[in-house]
Each structure stands twice: as structure tokens, then as C-alpha cells.
Amino acid sequence: MATTKGHEEHLGHVVFITAAAAIGGFLFGYDSSVINGAVTGIQKHFGMGPGQTGFVVAIALLGSAVGAWFAGGLADRWGRTRTMQLAAALFAVSSIGQMLPFATWDLAAWRVLAGMAIGMASVLGPAYIAEVAPPAYRGRLGSFQQLAIVLGIAVSQLVNYLIAQVADGDVNNRLWGLEAWQWMLGACFVPAALYFVFASVIPESPRFLVGVGRDDKARTVLSEVEGDDIDLDARIAEIRSVLRTERRQTLRDLRGPALGLLPIVWIGIVLSVFQQLVGINVIFYYSSVLWQSVGIGQSSSLLISFSSSIINIIGTFIAIALVDKIGRKPLLLIGSAGMAISLAVASWAFSAAVEAGGRVTLPNPEGAIALVAANVFVLFFALSWGVVVWVLLGEMFPNRIRAIALSVAAAAQWLANWLITETFPLLSEWNLSMTYLGYAVFAALSFVFVTRWVRETRGRKLEEMG
């Protein structure tokens, strides 16, 4: 009984520090998707067309690519937790800046800064969680990052909806001296402050501590996260033996025979890119505009966005329950198939849109089918690619290149995200149905890629990867 209690206590501690680290993922999701509710207000306030709208929404993602690129190096130099504190500070400052813009270029600049924080969080969370989680629980604990992201998305949509309701359904109405959309963008300051506090109290990664010669502290952290029944000296020696063969990671370490990079790095990059090319973030960045474009009112479109976020959370819980039971690869294959079919159905439904009196609408049953297909797509993404890609990126690379390879893969993900986000307003204005058909094609290609090149990592120690 005492052994079971001790096991539960150490697991509870691991869950706590994992959840605390995953607040960065919450901010990632919140700050990424809060623009969904604000974009209509920004368009009207600054008089922007589709091209400008895509630019202002998507430019944060270029900042995310920069943040992801440098996060691994900063984490290796300063430590995981101190770099998390920097990301939290960037979140807080950029939230206030986005809340009080005086021009489109000013808003765009603050969104770049917010994007840098998002990119850093996208790297720091998976890396830290993978390094503190015991192998038996690493898949489920690694899923906390994606769970936090989808919770952040859902909370941002709920906050947006509530603010819009207080503003009588119009995000350009004024509340307490500002327009409603400004309060939507500024609300991120609160979770940013919480992230800073938690990043200040969670322990440093044991692998970083061993790397900087703080073995006693590393031993303490390992006993807290893996239990007292492990051979701590052996674990320290195992980590040190791996680190001894390493040096400061640089891009040169990723060089290999496959188009200049190691094959495992390309696999990580392509996984990251496919996660975005299926168009998932169109739902979370533009769904209010998307549903308004086919005849649904502003307030109702925000409520639909919130319902999609709830489905996203449900799918994430399904993934958490299955990722360590059936493995990473089967979940990816299930998700690819489900996404391809649902996106193809959505494409067909959007093709029925008609314009009458300057107003675009979707007739029945195509309108209902489009809504269901879009949410089925969100469900299949959430129970597969949404979770599994982050789990894989945190664990698939060898120790000697993990931080820098994860940074490169995450940067590629943000660039793909930027491409989709930048082009959607113009593509949807051209042909919404064909745009979704393109996303369906990428989902089908992702099935082929996983089948041929992705290896299963379930249950393997990080020191065994490579």
C-alpha cells in the first residue's frame, strides 16, 4: 500500500509540472485563435480588404516561425524554465499592444511579437514534457500540450462570444472605452501572467541539469518524477553518457544524405507541414468569417466556433486515451482517412453556395452537411494529428539533435501555417469549394506519407531514439 501511495504521489507531481508547462500550450491556442472573433471588427475598424486581412492575421505566424527557430537554442543555453518565463513575458506585452493599436502596421507588429511567444511555446512545451515524463506515461503526458492548446482555443472562442454578447452582438460596439474586439485581444494578459508564475516554480529538466553539471539537483528531480524505486545513479550515468557524446546543437548537426538533412529531420518537417496543409487553422482563425460568408450571422458564427472548439477538446481526450494503447502511427492513419473524407464532403457542400441580393447562402441540406463535415474534420484532426504530431516531435529525434531538430520542425510548421492562413481569404473568395478540396488532397497524401515513412515510438526511452 505504501508503495502504491508513493507511486501515486510521484505521478501526481509529474502531472502537476506537466500541466504547468502546458500553460504555454494554452497560450499558444488562445493567442492563435483569439483573432477569429476579432477579425471582423478589425476589418471594419481599419477598412481592410481580404488581402490585408490575410496579412494581419497570418503575420503572427512568421513571428511564430522565428520564435520556434530560436527556442531550442535558448532552452539549451538558459534552461527550459527560464526560456518559458521569457515566452510568458512576450505573451503579456504583446497582448496589451494588440489591444491598443493605432494602425494596421502597429497591430501587425504586436502580432509578430505574440507569434514569437507562440513559436517558443510550441517548442518548449513538448521538449520539457518529454524530458520529465517517465517513458510509460510519456505519450499521455505529452498529449497535455495539445490538450492545453485546444482548451486555449475553446476558452478564446467562449471569451469572444461572451464579449460579443455584452457588446450586443457587434464586435465594433464600444465597451468601457474600447471596441469589443480590442478586449478580445487584450484578455490574453491574464493566462500570460499565470504562465510566468508557474514557469517560475516548476523544476528544471533533469537532462539540462546534468548537462550543466548540477547532478544533485537532477537526482532530486528524477526521484520526484520517476519515483524512488529507480536507480538514480544509473539514470544520471545514462543521461551523462548520452550527453558526453553531444556538444552544443547547431544546424550543422542536422546535415545528412537526404537533400542535405538527416532523414529523421525530414520526417519531422513533413509531419509538421502536413499538420497544417489540411487547413485545420482555417477553422480556428477564420471560422467566424467562413460561416458569415455562407449566410450565418456574426453572433451565431462565434457560437459555432465555440462548438467546434468543444469537439476539438473531445477529440483530444480520445487521443490521450489511445496514444499509449494503440500507438502513434495507427492514430495518424485513422486521422488522415477521416480528414480526407470529411474535407471532401465539405468541399461538395460549399459548392452549392448561391448568391441572391448580394448575400451568399448555403441551401439545405448542404448547409447542415457543411457544418457537420467541418466538425467531423475537427474531430478526426483532434484525435490524431493534433496530438500525435506534438508527441512525436517531442520524442522521435535522437538526444544529440532533439532541441535543434524540434525547432526546425516547429519552424516549418509555422511557415506552413502562415501559407494556409495568408492564402485562405483570397482562395475562399475565388472558390471556397476548390480550396477545401485542396485540403482534402493534402489529407490523403498524409496517409501515404505516414504509411511509408513514420516509425512507431510508443514505449521507447528517449535515449533509444535515433
From TrEMBL:
SUPFAM superfamilies registered for this protein in UniProt: MFS general substrate transporter
One matching Pfam family: Sugar_tr
CDD domains: MFS_XylE_like (cd17359)
Taxonomy, superkingdom: Bacteria
Places the protein is found: Cell membrane
This protein's record includes keyword Transmembrane: yes
Membrane topology: Multi-pass membrane protein
Transmembrane intervals: 12-30, 54-74, 86-103, 109-129, 141-163, 183-202, 258-284, 304-323, 330-350, 370-393, 400-416, 436-454
Keywords tagged on the record: Cell membrane, Membrane, Transmembrane, Transmembrane helix, Transport
Main location: membrane
Residue ranges of every copy of the Major facilitator superfamily (MFS) profile domain listed in the record: 17-458
Gene3D superfamilies given in the database record: MFS general substrate transporter like domains
PANTHER family (UniProt xref): PLASTIDIC GLUCOSE TRANSPORTER 4
Record family assignment: Belongs to the major facilitator superfamily. Sugar transporter (TC 2.A.1.1) family.
Protein name in the entry: Sugar porter family MFS transporter
Source lineage: Bacteria, Bacillati, Actinomycetota, Actinomycetes, Streptosporangiales
